[in-house]
Specification:
two-stranded antiparallel ribbon, alpha+beta, 7 helices
Length: 191
């Protein structure tokens, strides 16, 4: 069998095995990991700027719904307790409908951005604006919608349960959060 020089950047020929690391696994690609602050800014953009159309709809709906409403407060005195109860009269149903549409718009925008867009391209809108991508650690391709959905769910669970999830990239060698470790992804500077 002839000697191949795989160190020259040439891929192995058909039927030949790529070089192995000392542990017997193919070498992991070296990625230009994204900085922690770029991840934070992308998160802020994705959660405050991207869903803004739905938020605006909800605010407009609230103004429509409650602009002519009257609040009546009743004091009730009982044998064992005293309490206040309130009644809102004159709420506009069209405004409530606009608020519901706004809430659905936020949900659809977030699902599109985090699951389908990030799953297929590796980038949410915020990540695209900042030039970073989420890819599979093993081969550098986007996660796909299924794993992007799992990553989004894990962000919600781990981020809500323990804020340290968001700080973990500060001292992790691959700049990974726990949700990245679960789905075996890395956040890199886009090429």
């Amino acid at each position: 069998m002839s000697e191949q020089n795989w160190g020259s950047g040439q891929p192995p020929q058909y039927g030949q095995v790529p070089p192995m690391s000392p542990q017997g696994y193919p070498p992991q690609p070296a990625y230009p990991y994204a900085s922690w602050i770029s991840r934070v800014w992308a998160y802020l953009l994705d959660n405050f700027i991207v869903p803004l159309p739905g938020v605006i709809l909800m605010i407009v709906g609230a103004v429509i719904a409650f602009s002519g409403a009257e609040v009546t407060t009743y004091d009730t005195y009982g044998t064992y307790d005293n309490y206040e109860s309130s009644n809102i009269d004159g709420v506009n149903g069209a405004g409530i409908a606009v608020m519901v549409v706004g809430g659905l718009a936020i949900l659809l925008i977030e699902v599109w951005n985090y699951v389908f867009r990030q799953g297929n391209t590796g980038q949410t809108l915020g990540k695209k604006w900042l030039g970073i991508s989420v890819v599979r650690e093993s081969d550098g391709v986007p996660l796909g919608p299924g794993m992007a959905l799992l990553r989004w769910i894990m962000v919600s669970i781990l981020g809500g349960a323990c804020f340290i999830n968001y700080l973990w990239p500060l001292w992790d060698a691959k700049s990974q959060c726990w949700h990245d470790m679960v789905v075996r992804s890395v956040v890199i500077r886009a090429q």
